[in-house]
Amino acid sequence: MGTELVRGQNHPLPRTRLEILISAEVPVLAAAALGDERGLVHDAHRIAHAGAPVLPGIEVPRAAAAEHRVFADLNALPGTVHRVTVLLAMPERAGTESRFGATAAPRATVTGADGTEIARFTLTGLDAEAAVVALELYRRQDDWKVRAVGQGYAGGLAALLADLGLPRAREVAEAMGEAGHPAAPQPPPPEAGPTGGPVDHSHPRRHEPPAPAATTGPAGEPPRPVAGDAAGWSMEERLYNQVWGMFEDLTRATAALRSAADFAAARLDRELDAALTDPRARIGGAADAAREAARARHDELVGRAQAAYERDLAQLTAESEVVEPALPSAYARWDNPVWHDHRMPADPPQAVRLGDLHLPESAPLRIPMLVRLPLERGLWVDSGATPGDFGDSVERRRRALEVAVALAARLLAVHPVGEFAVQVVDPAGAGARPLGALTRTGTLTGPPAHGAAGVAQTLESLTRRVDLVRMAISGGAAEALPDGFDSARRLLIVNDFPQGFDDRALTGLRFLADEGPAAGVHLLLVADRGDAGAYGPLLDPLWRSLMRLTPSPDDHFADPWVGHAWTFEPALPPHGSAVVQQVLSAVSAARIKGK
Q1: What is the mean pLDDT of residues 239-251?
Q2: pLDDT for res 96
Q3: Which helix or strand (DSSP H or E) is residue 440 part of?
Q4: Which helix (H) or strand (E) element contains residue 68?
Q5: Gap between the Cα atoms of 367 and 559, Å rounded
Q6: What is the per-residue burial (b if ≥16 Cβ within 10 Å, else e) of 8-34?
Q7: Are strands 554-558 and 107-112 parallel, antiparallel or unpaired?
C-alpha cells in the first residue's frame, strides 16, 4: 500500500511512468497543466484537458466523469517543464451545486504503470470551491516528487488558471468546461509524430539549457546536491531559481509537518471523546486501552511526519551547504570569500540579497531572501521596537541605519561603475557615524542633506528627475533628456523619517515612492512608524507601498504558497568586520579609474 499523504506533504516518485487515479462522488473534469520551475503556465497549449487530452508526456480523460485515469511519462515531458499540476473542476450543471463541499471528498492515487501504489491523497476540507489543485508532480535535482496540494478555488477553474499565470484564464476555462461536458463531441485522435507519439507543438527553439546533473549518491540514498541545479541560461539564473526551489520545498515540507500534527491532534481529541462517551468503554480496562490505542496512533502519525520532515530537511541542508559558497556577490552573505577580492561587474545582477529567512521548525537552515532588480518597491528599515529588539531607541536607530548602509554598499558594488548612485537625507545629522562608511569613501553623490531645506532641495531635484524620465519614456524619446543627463539609478536613503518633512515634502516623498521605481529612483526609509503617528492614516499608503525590513530577527514575511510567518534576518557583516568599508573603497577606486 502506498503512503497516505496529508496536505503539503511530498513523496519521492520511484518511477517515471505513472497513472493517477481520480475518484469522486460526482462527475468532475480532470486536467493537467505543464509549468515552469515556479509552476507558472504561460500558454494554453500547455494544458491537457478534455478538448486537447494528449500532450507530450501527459494524457487526461476526454470528458467529465466520477472516475479518471491520468497517464504521465515524466521522461517524455519537454525539458522546459518542471512541474505538472493535476487539477479537478466541477462542471456547470443546471439545478445542482457546483462545489466540492456538497459531495464526498475526492481521492487521488498515484501508481506505477504496473499498478503498484506509490501515494494517495484525500482532498478533505473543501467547501465552496469549484476547482482544486489535487497534486503536483515536480522535478528536484533531476528526480521527481509528488506533492499533495488540495488548494481549492471558490472562483472556479478561471481563478485556478489565473493563479497559474495563464493569460486569458477565463476564456480558457470556459473552453475547457465546454469540451469536458458529456455531450460535447469527442476530439479526433492526436496527430502522430515520426515515432508514432503525439506531436510536440512547442516552439522548436524555446528550450531552456539543461541544468547540471546531480551527482549520484550511494544506493538507496538521494543524489548529492549540486550548486546551480535548476533551469536557467546562466549560473546566476540557475542559482536564483535553485534558491527559490529550496524556499518552496521548505515551505511545503513544513506545511506537511504542521498539517500532520494538527490532523493527529484533532483525531486524538475525537477518539478520546468517543472513548469517554461510549458506555461499553467504561467496563473494566476498555477505556484505558482505547485511550492508549488513540495516543499510540497519534504518536505513530506524528512520528512518521517528523521523520519525513527530517529527511527533507537534511536534504535541503546539504543543498544549502553547496549552494551558499557558490553564490555571486549580489546573492552572497557578507562573510562569503567572494567579497574579499571583489571586482566591479560588467552587467547588473538579476537579484540582490536582502537577508535570510527561516522557520522555527528548521531554525538552523537559512534561505537567502532574494528580490529581483531593479527594485519594484521601496524599502523601509523599521527602527521601532520589535519582539526581538536589542536595546533602547538610540541603539535600534543606529542598527537600522547600519542595515541601510550595508544594503546600499551591496547595491553599489554589484552594479557596473556609474550605473548606480546613492543620496542621503539625514535631517538632524543623527546618522553621521553609521553613514561614515559611505561618506569617507566618497561613494555618495554628495554630502548628506540636513535640515528641512536639505530635505526640500533633495526631493525637488529627484521629483524633477522622475518627471523628465517619465516624459521621455512616454514619448519614446530618450534623446529628449538634457545633454549630460546622469542615467544612473538612484537610491535615496532617508534617515529618521518624518523628521524635517513638512506637508509638501511628504507629498513629494509619496510621489517618489509611487512613480520613482519606473524612472530609476528608489527609496530606502529608516523610520519608526510611531514617530509619524501625528499624521494618522495620511501615511498609510506610503507604508503599504514599502517592503518592511527589520534590523533584528522578526516574524513578518509570508510565503506566497501557504502563508507561513517566516523570520527575517538582515544581511549584515560579521561583528567587527571591515568588509563593507573595503567594498566601498573598491567601488570608489573603480569610479576614479573610470573617469
Answers
A1: 91
A2: 53
A3: helix 432-440
A4: strand 65-73
A5: 12
A6: bbbbebeebebbbbbbbebbbbbbbbb
A7: unpaired
Are the C-beta atoms of residues 535 and 506 closer than 8 Å to each other? yes
Angle at 456 between CA 450 and CA 457, to 5 degrees: 80
Q: How far apart are CA 76 and CA 55, in angstroms?
A: 10
pLDDT digits (tens, 9 = 90+) for 291-333: 889 899 999 989 988 998 999 999 999 999 999 999 999 999 9
Residue 507's Cβ-side half-sphere holds a number of Cα atoms within 13 Å equal to 4
* Model pLDDT for residues 481-539, shown as the tens digit of each residue: 777 788 899 999 999 999 999 999 999 999 999 999 999 999 999 999 999 988 888 89
- The beta strands (E) that lie in 74-156 are given as 83-89, 107-112, 117-122, 131-140, 143-153
Give CA separation, 153 vs 24, 88, 194, 426, in Å. 17, 10, 40, 48
Task: Specify the length of the chain in residues.
Answer: 595
Q: Which amino acid is at 98?
A: S
What residues does 192 pair with on adjacent strands?
A: 198
> Greatest CA separation found in the chain?
96
For residue range 63-122, list pLDDT tens digits in order: 888 889 999 999 889 888 999 999 999 987 544 567 888 888 899 999 998 888 999 999
CA distance 440 to 588: 10
Strand partners, 122: 107
pTM of the model: 0.69
CATH code for the domain defined by 3-180: 2.60.60.30
CB-based contacts of 235-241 (< 8 A; 24+ apart in sequence): 235/326, 235/328, 236/328, 236/331, 236/349, 236/350, 237/350, 238/211, 238/212, 239/323, 239/326, 239/327, 239/328, 239/331, 240/331, 240/350, 240/351, 240/370, 241/37, 241/38
User: Distances from the Cα of 576 to the Cαs of 219, 413, 424, 573, 581, in angstroms?
Assistant: 46, 20, 24, 8, 11
Does residue 188 surpass a pLDDT of 50?
A: no
Fold of 347-594: Rossmann fold (3.40.50)
At 223, the amino acid letter reads P
Please give the Cα distance from 397 to 106 (Å, whole number).
Answer: 54
Q: Where are the domains of the chain?
A: 3-180, 235-326, 347-594
Of residues 408 and 392, which shows the higher confidence score?
A: 408
Q: Characterise 3 by phi-psi region: left (phi > 0), alpha (psi -120 to 50), beta (else).
A: beta
Backbone angles phi, psi at 371, to 5 degrees: -125, 145
Partners of 491 in beta bridges: 422, 522
Give the C-alpha separation, 25 to 351, whole Å.
Answer: 47
C-alpha cell at 195: 515515432
**Residues forming a β-bridge with 281:** none
Interstrand relation of 143-153 and 10-12 (parallel, antiparallel or unpaired): antiparallel
d(CA 211, CA 79): 10
